[in-house]
Amino acid sequence: MKDQTSNSWEQRDMHNVFHGFTDLDTLNRNGPVVLTHGEGIHVFDVHGKSYMDANSGLWNNVAGFNHRGIIEALCDQARRFPGYHAFFGRIADTTVALSEKLIEISPFPSGKVYYTNSGSEANDTVVKMLWMLHRRNGQPQRRKIISRVNAYHGVTVATASMTGKAYNAEFGLPLPGFLHADCPHFWRFGRAGETEIEFSQRLARNLEELIIKEGPDTIAGMFAEPVQGAGGVIPPSEGYFEAIRPILRKYGIPLIADEVITGFGRTGAMWGSDKYNVQPDAIVASKCITAGYFPMGAVLLGPDLCAALTAVSEKAEEFPHGFTAGGNPLGSAVALKALEVLETEGLLENVNRLSGRFMSGLRQLGEHKYAGEARGVGFMGAVELVADKATKVALDGSYQISERIANKALEKGLICRPLGQAIVLGPPFVMTEVEMDRMFAILADTMTEVFAEVGL
Ligand SMILES: *Cc1c(COP(=O)(O)O)cnc(C)c1O
User: Fold this and answer.
1) Torsion, CA 137, CA 138, CA 140, CA 142, rounded to 10
2) Domain, as residue range, for 376
3) CDD domains, from UniProt (predicted)?
């Protein structure tokens, strides 16, 4: 018989759980962190140790880990109607109510919502929508998808192909036909003497060249995060979206805003598209749509794309695509409540009230000898570490500097995220001033200790 219960939670995890996106060297050395519950912005492990989660889980637990109202909304829905699908024209009333709400708060004058269980599925769904749309409209060759270097759009085969990260080579991805345009990171990629606006215009020219080289009538659409998240928190360079938008219009290429992180207030605006004048044809949402309490993804179709897609689906009799659990009423009840909380309990105001303090905390860390850039917007930010501030040359990989800092911070009871050579912070929207100051104080101490330890 398998003896599985006499061991510690950590051992039981090590024996039975296959972790993804986990540094296995660190896992094998330090073991997993097994959690039991949360209070406010803190989570507790099986030994009772508490951690301030400066990443809101994975960007999504924006209202803290024990919000009474959201939990009640979930329980109420569970008692009334805990599950149904959205196939064959059937749907739960709560999901209809959520759709109305999402379109109301969207940047679109009208539109419709399609439901999935994750951000990856939502992006993947849009790829299929675009492929079907162009095929039915007599352009079956319009299949190529443009995203950008350092983009993160998910992990399905198509969305991993869109994700502009080197690790996808492990899977032999990207698939052919998935193209990566420039990353709009001025600090990293700007040339000597070039202004930020000129940089944005150069990237737009490069994009047009790419489109022409590939053949404009072979491009199905372009996906872009208003602020690149998993790429290391990279707000767009000044004038970037204004520069690329007319080019995409000129060649009839739809622009999809992947707002899985930036949707619902992370940048201080309801949408990153509002903040950066993206003017998308569709928006992909997930993560904080349910404040992290239920899996849900959504595609918000703007009026033009919605009308076009409806027309071709009518010709085909249907849009032949769907996820069994998409539009589940539990998720819809949670999302409705989470959006209400965002608007009526001062979460959005808190992000705007404290984003100045957040940015100045980041900038203070950015004064460290080995900090190259402190960047961010709203409640998302990063400090990028370098060997030399002037040349921006990266620290030797053998220092594993960001992993060390994150591991040391964890010991001190702070969860932050290493991304490449950057430390990323994405605090819950309910974080207080006192908590914010504590977060930066722990991180400053941690950096001092770690740099001393590695002898820098
Ligand atoms: C997290 C993320 C996704 C993928 O969402 P999952 O729910 O993990 O599939 C897609 N796009 C962006 C911008 C994300 O941050």
Assistant:
1) -70
2) 33-63+346-453
3) OAT_like
In the chain, how many domains are there? 2
**Residue 303 backbone dihedrals phi, psi, to 5 degrees:** -60, -40
The alpha carbon of residue 153 and the mean position of all alpha carbons in its chain are separated, in whole angstroms, by 8
Residues framing ligand 1 (Cβ under 6 A): 118-120, 123, 152-154, 225, 229-230, 258, 260-261, 286-287
Nearest atom in ligand 1 to the alpha carbon of residue 159 is: 10
Q: How many helices (H) and strands (E) does the chain have?
A: 16, 15
Coil, helix or strand at residue 23: coil
Q: Which residue has the tokens 């995220």?
A: 417
Please give the distance, rounded to the nearest whole angstrom, from the Cα atom of residue 120 to the centre of ligand 1: 6
Instruction: At 144, give phi and psi (nearest 5°).
Output: -75, 145
Record the tokens describing residue 284, joined without a space. 């992909």
pLDDT of residue 121 exceeding 80: yes
Atom of ligand 1 nearest to the CA of 262: 13
Q: What is the pTM of this model?
A: 0.97
What is the rounded end-to-end Cα distance, in angstroms, of the chain? Answer: 51
- Structure token digits, residue 5: 């219960």
Question: 193 and 59: one domain?
Answer: no
Question: CATH number for the domain including 374?
Answer: 3.90.1150.10
Nearest to 42 by CA among 442, 441, 431: 431
State the Cα–Cα distance between residues 55 and 282, nearest whole angstrom: 27
At 148-185, the pLDDT tens digits run: 999 999 999 999 999 999 999 999 999 999 999 999 99
Q: Count Cα neighbours of 147 within 13 Å in the Cβ-side half-sphere.
A: 29
Structure tokens given for 227:
């602020």
Measure 314 CA to ligand 1 centroid, in angstroms.
Answer: 30
CA distance 135 to 118: 26
Same domain for 384 and 429: yes
